[in-house]
Amino acid sequence: MESIYVMTGREIWRTITRFWGKLFGINFALGVATGITMEFQFGMNWSYYSHYVGDIFGAPLAIEGLMAFFLEATFVGLMFFGWDKLSKPVHLLVTFMVALGTNLSALWILVANGWMQHPVGSRFNPETMRMEVNDFMAVLFNPVAQAKFVHTVSAGYVCASVFVLGISSWYLLRGKWTAVAKRSFTVAAAFGLASSLSVVVLGDESGYALTDNQKMKLAALEAMWHTEPAPAGITVIGFPSVADRTTHFEIKLPYLLGLISTRSLTGEVTGIEELVQKAGVHIVSGIEAYDAVEKLKMDRNDMAAREQFERHKSDLGHALLLKRYVEDPRTATPEQIAQAAWDTVPNVPVMFWIFRVMAGLGFFFIAFFGVAFFLATVRRFDSRPFLKTALWVIPLPWVAIEFGWLLAEIGRQPWAIDGVLPTFLGASSLTVAQIWTTIAGFTILYGALAVIEVRLMLAAIRKGPVEEHEIPAGEGPDEGYAPLPAE
């Protein structure tokens, strides 16, 4: 929007930019307030997690704060208060730097989260008994992190486009600020259509990444209990049952899952039961690694133990799953090993349904923005059914995004770090009362902040894109800034 203002010199685009920038600024402030808490949470609620993997996990978060956050925090002030102090091209550069900073923030945070999903570029050091970085470039260019970054950022663009489109539709329904609303509607429709298409395409790429790196998550979200002959079909709808480990009343599209996840007609998608069997093998191997670590604790020069550790070190995390049942994994019974192997299966019914809601909303947004783009192209800004629909659609991107994160994080369970550290071992030694107290405290605090934010946003929206300067000469009632009479 600001680029159009700089290129054309039309003041209405300045007004449009400043209006949406004001709403962005309100949201930005709350994002800072809520994001800071996460840094403290790792030390307070996840102390062993921070101790065990802090050397790796902390690095991208530190870079995010030092590079991205300070970049956007510095330039966001210039963006809001530099309109009358900077030239048009320089202010546009400042706005682009804010955008760059916010996207770099997303990149480094998703590098950290991608490492939790697929822990590459790291190793367990028996000298320090912690995980350490051995290839930072592998951490940075982690395929899971890269796929998550582009998918998540595109989803954010869809969210922004729906918001702009919805508020613009509200103005058009009320006959107010129609010049601003029509232009904003058009920009949001075009940007939203491109972003929604990008989300689906990049979601497909994320599915492809799961095939190599998170096979259990892929099998769980498809409720694929057994390996099917290639190429596997995708289940459109069904009712997964954990009790009998089958999916009832399923309707499948043949070949589609195999094509999405393996990019071929011959690639195999492994089922849950087969993956559980493999997990059992990894647990047995992990017990050998755990035994070697315990021996090295007693004698760091035990070469036989060191050789034993090197052979089995990649499975050490699987042995830690047994800590839920026995203090020393070496004493686990075959039944406990089998139970720990089944613990590697996330909640299949939840995974199955949240994926379908998320994917269904993704395709809905493509259709929604397709209609919006058509209406903007033919200058039909008076379609009341669509304008009313756009208002109700505003919350849906948040639902889709939250379901996407539920899919990512529930699908990783029982791991805090996939294959490395079980979630139950990463938590601090807090009492139930302490946990409930902090949850209640944060809920009250963030609830109050949410009420404040929504009230500020609604007040700014009701006020409209009012500028302090006068209406430029020559602008008509539909091209200026004074609201038209409501219907």
Automatic annotation (TrEMBL):
Cellular component aspect of the GO annotation: cytochrome complex; plasma membrane
Enzymatic class: oxidoreductase
Enzyme Commission code: 1.10.3.-
A Gene Ontology biological process term: aerobic electron transport chain
Predominant place of localization: membrane
Recorded GO MF terms: electron transfer activity; heme binding; metal ion binding; oxidoreductase activity, acting on diphenols and related substances as donors, oxygen as acceptor
Alphabetical keyword list: Cell inner membrane, Cell membrane, Electron transport, Heme, Iron, Membrane, Metal-binding, Oxidoreductase, Transmembrane, Transmembrane helix, Transport
Membrane topology, as annotated: Multi-pass membrane protein
Segments passing through the bilayer: 20-42, 62-83, 90-111, 149-173, 185-203, 353-378, 390-408, 428-452
Pfam families: Cyt_bd_oxida_I
Subcellular location: Cell inner membrane
Protein family membership: Belongs to the cytochrome ubiquinol oxidase subunit 1 family.
Protein name: Cytochrome d ubiquinol oxidase subunit I
Protein's organism: Sphingobium jiangsuense
Phylogenetic placement of the source organism: Bacteria, Pseudomonadati, Pseudomonadota, Alphaproteobacteria, Sphingomonadales
